[in-house]
Write a structure and sequence with these properties.
The complex is a heterodimer of chains A (about 325) and B (about 280). By secondary structure, chain A is of the alpha+beta class. Chain A has 9 helices and 12 strands. Chain B has 2 domains: about 220 residues, Transmembrane di-heme cytochromes, Chain C (Fumarate Reductase Cytochrome B subunit), CATH 1.20.950; about 35 residues, no CATH class. The chains are: A alpha+beta (about 325), B mainly alpha (about 280). Chains A and B meet through helix 4 and helix 9 of A and helix 2, helix 4 and helix 5 of B. The complex binds iron/sulfur cluster (3 copies). One iron/sulfur cluster binds next to helix 2 and strand 5 of chain A.
């Protein structure tokens, strides 16, 4: 298909300039790396789970990067007061059938009953890079931030590992490695518990006009990254063409990761193994809700206070003038 | 302002009902903001807060955030009301003046038995300084909090610089706010200040205490013959025994209370005190 440039960067128009380097087209004016929102299409009609490989190729590529980036934890990892579980994956780095700090992408397998048979679907799972990522907006230290290119990135130098991001993420994506990070320098027994890790869309590579490692590694072109609007169109087009189903368009108020599957996601959700590090495929509405009554009221509260203050002051002055008039009559 | 002497009951009215409402709206919503603000850190579960009866919600960040927002509406609206209402009416008795810092140090020394207290106006110099400090902390919390709310509501992709500035200003002034709150409570525990405590609950304090300690304020209050606004609650207006004169103790703009004595003359001339 000529719509795909080189392998996996979607080129619909010349708007591909941000990736001209890798896409092999001349640089175009207008777009620059890191500025335009990107999105990924994960086409599960193409992914075969790399069943012929020990470790799926995309997973292996991602893990290698993670292994190079995560330092070894201190030994022993300080105990936590008054309680809290130390999560040490450093001795289980080879776990790749769920999300861990070292496995920020894994392949979920769904054996879906279809027409009396079983249809197996492989779903590469990782952070969705939500449009409104609560993991980032609710981080107490801005250690997690959504960048204009759409990537949601945890800064390992600022993260305390409190795992609030995991609690507020609808898919509980971020994973903790205890015994590393800034918390060790402050009050390691009392506050913090390591560093949280998740897919960052290979933010550093995107800035260098390189494809994310997993996208590059896939031999079946199952993942496509491109300008957000192009990816959305392409997802709709492929879904219509194949009669497939999409996930991620509206979840949590919209995400930067769209899954295409030949079977409905409700069916997939019923059969995939779920639990810690193994996210669901539920319908998810946006949290915190956009323009919720509460937040709107907060933003309006200065106006409410000002209005009330002005009104009350005017009434008080009127009262005073009236009283003064009366007082003078009395005298 | 409704300051006036209620001689028969040995009381003097120090705060109007409106001022009490303002204070408690800010104080109670502020406490709730401190509590839910702390719970925005992932400590609810780890520190067993979720296991306190009725506190199981404390580990759910969306619940704590919603409560934080509800309290913030009251807190922000009351703060803006305070500034606009008293600002427009020119009531600036709590604003610091020149020399307050020096004076405060002197007064604090007297708490430790060094020297005698100077005569006071309605507010102690350190009360005026503490007010300014608290006002600044609250202003920074409100500005940064509004930016954070705006980000959560409308613009999750607000630039990193703005987001992180708002976050850290909010965090740092949150700590200062807790410190200021503790200092505020600590000041009430100091013995000479204790008779003032009832003022923030009832609006009135003991007349003999006020005459003794706040002589400059009382002098101004009792020398003013002009009847003035009393918040519309004329029924409460009392006559000063024996004089037949109405004493609601107001100095209207343009009027100058007589200086109480030497030390106070310079400062009572500052009309702000009673405006
Ligand atoms: S999927 Fe979870 S971790 Fe990823 S951006 Fe959304 S909320 Fe954050
Ligand atoms: S984009 Fe990068 S970090 Fe994310 S799953 Fe792919 S390789 Fe891993
Ligand atoms: S996405 Fe590609 S590399 Fe990853 S498992 Fe599927 S086929 Fe293999």
């Amino acid at each position: 298909m000529s719509r795909l440039t080189r392998r996996n960067f979607l080129q619909v128009s010349a708007g591909l300039a941000a990736f001209s380097g890798i896409a092999g087209t001349p640089k175009e004016a207008g777009a620059s790396p890191g500025k335009e929102a990107l999105a990924t299409l994960i086409d599960c009609t193409r992914c075969d789970g790399c069943v012929d490989h020990d470790v799926p190729l995309c997973v292996a590529a991602c893990r290698e990067r993670a292994l190079n980036r995560i330092p070894d934890p201190v030994d022993p990892i300080p105990p936590l007061f008054p309680r809290g579980m130390i999560e040490d994956w450093s001795k289980r780095k080879d776990v790749y059938d769920r999300l861990t700090p070292y496995t920020q992408l894994f392949i979920q397998r769904a054996d879906v009953p279809v027409d009396g048979g079983i249809r197996t679907v492989y779903l590469p799972r990782r952070c969705m890079h939500c449009d409104n990522p609560p993991c980032a907006t609710l981080c107490p230290f801005t250690a997690n931030h959504k960048y204009p290119d759409g990537s949601v990135v945890i800064d390992p130098d600022l993260c305390f590992g409190g795992a609030k991001c995991r609690s507020v993420c609808p898919w509980n994506i971020p994973q903790r490695q205890s015994g590393i990070g800034i918390y060790l320098e402050i009050m390691p027994t009392l506050a913090g518990n390591g560093v949280m890790f998740k897919c960052d869309l290979c933010h550093d590579r995107l800035l260098n006009q390189q494809l994310p490692l997993c996208v590059e590694a896939c031999p079946r072109d199952a993942m496509v990254i491109g300008l957000r609007r192009d990816i959305m169109k392409e997802a709709e087009r492929r879904a219509a063409e194949t009669g497939g189903y999409l996930y991620g368009l509206t979840e949590n108020g919209g995400t930067g990761t769209i899954y295409l599957s030949p079977v409905p996601f409700e069916e997939i959700n019923k059969v995939v193994e779920k639990g810690p590090g193994r996210p669901h495929f539920d319908k998810v509405s946006r949290r915190p809700a956009r323009a919720s009554l509460m937040e709107t009221s907060v933003l309006m509260s200065p106006v409410i206070g000002m209005g009330a203050g002005l009104t009350a002051a005017m009434l008080a002055v009127r009262n005073r003038v009236k009283k003064k008039g009366e007082g003078e009559n009395d005298d | 302002m409704t300051d006036r002497v209620i001689e028969g009951k040995n009381l003097v009215r120090r705060h109007s009902v409106l001022e009490l409402v303002e204070h408690w709206a800010i104080a109670l919503s502020g406490l709730l903001l401190i509590l839910t603000g702390l719970l925005e850190l992932p400590i609810g579960k780890r520190y067993y807060v979720t296991e306190i009866p009725w506190f199981s919600w404390s580990g759910d960040f969306y619940t704590t955030l919603t409560i934080h927002y509800i309290a913030a509406v009251v807190f922000v609206a009351a703060s803006f009301f305070h500034v606009f209402y008293h600002g427009l009416l020119g009531e600036g008795g709590l604003l610091p003046r020149r020399g307050d810092l020096k004076e405060s140090i002197k007064v604090i020394k007297t708490f430790f038995g060094k020297g005698d207290e100077p005569p006071f106006e309605k507010y102690l110099p350190e009360q005026r300084l503490a007010y300014m400090g608290m006002a600044f902390i609250i202003a920074m919390l409100i500005i940064s909090g509004l930016v954070k709310t705006y980000k959560n509501l409308l613009d999750p992709q607000l630039s990193y610089a703005v987001t992180s500035a708002a976050t850290w200003i909010h965090n740092i002034f949150f700590v200062l706010f807790i410190a200021a709150f503790i200092a505020h409570i600590a000041a009430l525990v100091i013995k000479p200040n204790r008779p003032m405590v009832r003022g923030i609950f009832t609006g009135t304090i003991r007349l003999d205490y006020a005459r003794g300690r706040h002589s400059l304020w009382m002098a101004a209050l009792e020398r003013t013959k002009t009847p003035s606004t009393d918040d519309g609650r004329g029924g409460e207006r009392e006559e000063v025994a024996g004089t037949g004169a109405r004493k609601d103790g107001h100095v209207l703009p343009g009027e100058k209370p007589d200086p109480g004595n030497e030390t106070g003359s310079e400062r009572t001339n500052d009309k702000k005190e009673e405006l």
